[in-house]
């Protein structure tokens, strides 16, 4: 997996980044016939090359947002850069393929098999690669899996990272027929067992609360990846990994990779000056800063007392943000010796409708608003300027090219938006805005500030809704407070953000749609459900999907949940978040990874 569901910090990072942040987790009654799955942008655009065509040796330079606070992705301080480095340094027993399916990584796992559906208890037997060792020569073993399970199960509050999905379902971890066989027994069936133990840390780092709670930084820690950590310089903004001398798999092509802290706003300059080889550019383009609007000249000097006060710096007008992004993209595409790779990221941008605000408490109105949204035109407005196909989404739970994707938007019903609005009591009489009981239908739309993609999306949404007599007033919030303050407070009618999607939707997506519950004081506790609507039925469908070991039956449950989410008028999936990466010409194995992550031993310079 891609470590999206592991920590609240990582999820919040992706939420805030979803429309241009920096980067880190559908009872069926009659339902509409499955709609045709439309093609979407590929979820991977990586320059591939046969290993024989890649030179041995050399150094690559890879941009990070900053030196991460920890390499333990299960700790609260972890983020997307923690996960990226973990892929070079630590095992993951399974890794996602190009369609988001988790498949065994043969460098670590010879095979894994679960008891068949219906057989209790569920036991998964892992056959570890007998050559896989930590950097002290100790083989990977049941002790590592068992210690990680204890740390992440949530049973011992002394482990401060908090529980991670699935580990609480594990009853025991034991050595099997030999030291390379591990048997994991579950308390209850757990369908997403392939998402566990990825990444896997050595028992020395997880066996006790004291060991687990320490930030995993600096050199001297055990690892078991194609590379080993040789430098961790937070002040200098550099993390260096070099070939692991005990690596048992295919020899890494590059001697060394320098991960360099380079803020997004400096990456185009760094690429232009030849100081980077791989640089994520989504934020550099999407959040490019336009020049400030000129201050109007005063018509006459203002009187002052004892001197004049400095004027506040002029701010950019919102209309300049998309043009600044277009200018940044043109520059990226014109950089000599650099190719811009594009893909659809594993993150779904959606319009969320707040059911606890004013008129949107009526499900009929929420469905009418959802029907008024032209998902195709919005996707085109958001993605076409970035060179990506404007592919709309029709599922809340699966990306367009994930296995089992289906467009369930017809679940809203056959009526058009105008009819639905009329039936909900909002009439278009005199004027351009619908009214009911003397009140106009005016909704606030919360978007992250400074994002060109958000701006284009908000403009297209506003035009769509205005065409049906729904007035929209856009509110912006800084990216760093967007999730913990504005979304959490719920002071909006509509909100635009992205939600991570991955190989385990039954686990990863549940929080976004779980029915809000009252807290000890009786106030509604929304958790991660920013639409603040839900039903017991949807919760049961997710719960059943998590325990359903038959893949086809599990997919049926997820698609049924998606139908119910559409009918609830909870939110409208729009498109997959764009991913842009600049790669120096001739560097193979790097690009926009989509669902996947780098196979670091293959990354290098072509001959």
Kindly describe this structure.
With 607 residues, the protein is an alpha+beta fold. Helices cover 26% and strands 21% of the residues. The strands form 8 sheets. It has a 6-stranded mixed β-sheet with strand order 12-21-13-18-16-17, with helices on both faces. Strands 2-11-10-9 form a 4-stranded mixed β-sheet, with helices on one face. Strands 5-6-8-7 form a 4-stranded antiparallel β-sheet, with helices on one face. A hairpin with an 8-residue loop joins strand 5 and strand 6 (123-128). The radius of gyration is 25 Å and the shape is globular. Residues 1-18, 20-42 and 299-316 have low confidence and may be disordered.
- Measured between the Cα atoms of the first and last residue, the distance is 32 Å
Radius of gyration: 25 Å
Overall mean pLDDT: 89
- Give me the number of helical elements: 17
Strand content: 15-25%
- Strand segment tally: 24
Strand-pairing-aware structural class: alpha+beta
**Main β-sheet, spatial strand arrangement:** 12-21-13-18-16-17
For the report, how would you describe the main beta sheet? 6 strands, mixed
Helix content: 25-40%
Give the overall shape: globular
* Uncertain runs: 1-18, 20-42, 299-316
Descriptive tags:
single chain; 607 residues; alpha+beta; six-stranded mixed beta sheet; four-stranded mixed beta sheet; 17 helices; globular
